[in-house]
Amino acid sequence: MASIRVVFSALVFGFLLFNTLSEAKEFLVGGSKEAWKIPSSPSDSLNQWAQRSRFQINDVIVWKYNAKDDSVLQVTRNDYANCNISSPIAQFNDGDTKLKLDKAGPYYFISGAKGHCEQGQKMIVVVMSPRSRKQPMISPAPSPVSEFQDGPAVAPTSGANALSCTLMMTVIYWGWMVFI
Ligand SMILES: *[C@@H]1O[C@H](CO)[C@@H](O)[C@H](O)[C@H]1NC(C)=O
After folding, report:
1. 32: helix, strand or coil
2. Three-state SS at 105
3. Is 82 in the pocket of ligand 1 (CB under 6 A)?
4. Is the CB of 135 under 6 A from ligand 1?
5. Quick one: which of 128, 176, 180 has its CA closest to 154?
6. If you write DSSP's letter for every residue of 76-97 in order, what string do you get?
7. tRNA-binding as a keyword (predicted)?
8. 172 — pLDDT class (breaks 50, 70, 90)
9. Count of Cβ atoms closer than 10 Å to residue 20 Cβ
């Protein structure tokens, strides 16, 4: 019976570890409250920050800015490249914007304030595919991102995650009750 106990202990430990590692993270853009602004130099750009970060599905990005004079626009790759603020996919101007990254692939953000995007207040966030587990290389200039166009990514939803957690816990619980 002792060995079964060890196996189940290992299962429970593994499950808890998995849960910790796969927990969704919150990213404050640029790592500080003042970061959503025109960068002072190219090396200070938000893309430098974004490329250092590993974004995964269900992570949340948070922008802090003064809602009176700035906003966040999610735009297409083309509108990102041209700083076209006229028809964003989504726009936020509440000063404390949270966006959940619910699928893999690139997300394009520009400032909605006139002239800011042209001066570098823009950012590409690439969410890793759950299949490849590695961050694809991106270049600041738009290039064909064929990797993201090869059909729908198999993205686990949080609902499916919760279900698998519940199933796992049930199995472990009954295993424990029956064998120990
Ligand atoms: C910006 O986008 C709109 C809508 O897609 C388009 O009509 C317009 O020509 C674009 N402007 C520029 C400068 O590209």
Report:
1. coil
2. strand
3. yes
4. no
5. 128
6. -HHHHHHT--SS-SEEE-SSEE
7. no
8. low
9. 8
**Around Cβ 62, how many Cβ atoms within 10 Å?**
14
**To test the ligand 1 pocket, which listed residue (86, 89, 118) has its Cβ within 8 A of the most ligand atoms?**
86
Q: What are phi and psi for residue 33, nearest 5 degrees?
A: -70, -20
Q: Whose CA is nearest to atom 11 of ligand 1?
A: 84
- Sorted by where each starts, the structural domains of the chain and their CATH numbers stand as 23-179 (2.60.40.420)
Contact 130, 153 (CB under 8 A): yes
Tens of pLDDT along 143-154? 444 444 443 444
Measure the CA–CA gap between 163 and 158, rounded to whole angstroms: 9
Q: In what order do the strands lie in the sheet with 122-127?
A: 90-92, 72-75, 105-111, 122-127
Distance 147 CA to ligand 1 centre (A): 26
Q: Which pair of structure tokens corresponds to residue 115?
A: 């002239």
